[in-house]
Amino acid sequence: MDTIKKLAEITCSTPASVYRWINGLNPPAPIKQKIIAEYLGMSVEELFPSKDE
């Protein structure tokens, strides 16, 4: 299973949503950010930096 499909599965989202997150069009909800970060072994801040930074 590729990463896009796995991220969609673990966040109960569609692959299209995951593509939008990756391309910066729409960030995922905070709870989904946490799920993704835990799955990838990274922090939420690393994956989804604040626009203020």
UniProtKB/TrEMBL annotation:
Residues 3-47 form the HTH cro/C1-type domain. It comes from the Bacteria. CDD domains: HTH_XRE. SUPFAM superfamilies: lambda repressor-like DNA-binding domains. InterPro entries: Cro/C1-type_HTH (IPR001387), Lambda_DNA-bd_dom_sf (IPR010982). GO terms for molecular function: DNA binding. Pfam families: HTH_3. This is Helix-turn-helix domain-containing protein. The lineage of its organism: Bacteria, Pseudomonadati, Bacteroidota, Bacteroidia, Bacteroidales.
